[in-house]
Amino acid sequence: MANNPQHDAVMKALSTVIEPELHRDIVSLNMVRNLSIEDGVVKFTFMLTTPACPLKDVMFKAAQFAVKKVPGIRDLDVKWDAEVPTDRRVHGRLNINLRNIIAVGSGKGGVGKTSVSVNLAVSLAMEGARVGLMDADILTPNVPIMLGLTHGRPKVIDNKMIPFEVYGIKAISMGFLTDPEKPLILRGPMLHSAIRQFFQDVQWGDLDYMIVDLPPGTGDAPLSLAQSVPLSGAVIVSQPQEVAVGDALRSINMYEELNVPIIGVVENMAGDLFGSGGGEKLAKQKNVPFLGRIPLEADVRKGGDQGRPVVNSAPDTEAAKAFRQLSRDVAARVSVLQFQTADVIPLNIIG
Ligand SMILES: Nc1ncnc2c1ncn2[C@@H]1O[C@H](COP(=O)(O)OP(=O)(O)OP(=O)(O)O)[C@@H](O)[C@H]1O
Ligand SMILES: [Mg+2]
To answer: For the chain: N or C, fewer Cβ within 10 A?
Structure first.
């Protein structure tokens, strides 16, 4: 399409469309692929940085508005696609194709980390991303129950464990490997090597997002994780009544000390019982993004107990909708964080 003035005019028009979160135009971000013009209709593949992009509509409207200003163009037709950029640090340190590793942590126990991890992972998969879920709660793994995977062991092929595939995600947990009735007693170094093995000895394949469900607090597990792999960021789960000077704050401080970016704070179990506002206050105090609230709803717990995540079992509930939105916001924020990191492989050189 070289030397075609109309094509050039359209590209020029599209280069005025700014990606609202990355603050750069969609042409220089290489988001416009395979452009053609047929009968006054511009067609191209709109290559996003995540399939879970919350800004599709806004960007389509802006692009449509821009191309229609070019003489002879009457409409725009796009095909959506996504290439999640690779965090080069992940690729360099582990010989595996995990593009982004996201930790889900909290200060206190029982605030809903595992529920958030599971529903976040399944939601990202529902948006079209390739997702893994790693249960880094080695001693008290809850992921198996919440995914309904309490029977059977993962296969081993060529010395690599094959993760279970369920609800569109791949999952691994110590709970798949041990007797649920026997307590698992591990010292710190063994915990560390268990987490490392979950990265290196599992056949993950190419994943856009790896969600890591952590035990509560600032103990060995988040430390081991942050030392073993470069994290794209951490999602902090807090409850409405958690005061800003409490455990969640300590947890944020720990990630900051480990140089792990905070993706944001999500307030879980918001509602009449616990009220709301604690998570938002905490986010403000630490000047990190507030990722919204997940309401306290019986369907979340029921879904967890029955091994059917609420985003799958009761997709029309407020909680499910909140989890779906959370997944889009987390994906968007991870894209933004990547563009702020020099270590990220830019979109235009990955295939
Ligand atoms: N939004 C919600 N509405 C109703 N119940 C919820 C909600 N979020 C979590 N729960 C329930 O609260 C309990 C604790 O949640 P979960 O196991 O996810 O927390 P956790 O932070 O992972 O706990 P732990 O610190 O023990 O790992 C579970 O029974 C879960 O089903
Ligand atoms: Mg848990």
So the answer is: C
List per-residue pLDDT tens for the chain, 351 residues long. 456 899 999 999 999 999 998 889 999 999 999 999 999 999 999 999 999 998 999 999 999 999 999 999 999 999 999 999 877 666 566 667 788 999 999 988 999 999 999 999 999 999 999 999 999 999 899 999 999 998 888 999 998 999 999 999 999 999 998 876 776 666 667 888 889 899 989 999 999 999 999 999 888 889 989 888 889 999 999 988 876 458 889 999 999 999 999 999 999 998 877 777 888 888 998 999 999 999 999 999 999 999 999 999 999 999 999 999 999 999 999 998 887 765 554 444 333
Q: Which residue from 268, 260, 269 is spatially nearest to 288, judged by alpha carbons?
A: 260
What is the position in ligand 1's atom list of the atom closest to the CA of 215? Answer: 27
Q: What is the pTM of this model?
A: 0.89
**Cβ distance 287 to 259 under 8 Å?**
no
* Whether residue 319 has its Cβ less than 6 Å from ligand 1: yes
96, two tokens: 């595996």
Which residue minimizes the CA distance to atom 10 of ligand 1?
A: 301
Q: What domains can you pick out in the chain, each with its CATH number?
A: 5-82 (3.30.300.130), 88-345 (3.40.50.300)
Query: For ligand 1, atom 31, which residue shows the shortest CA distance?
Result: 301
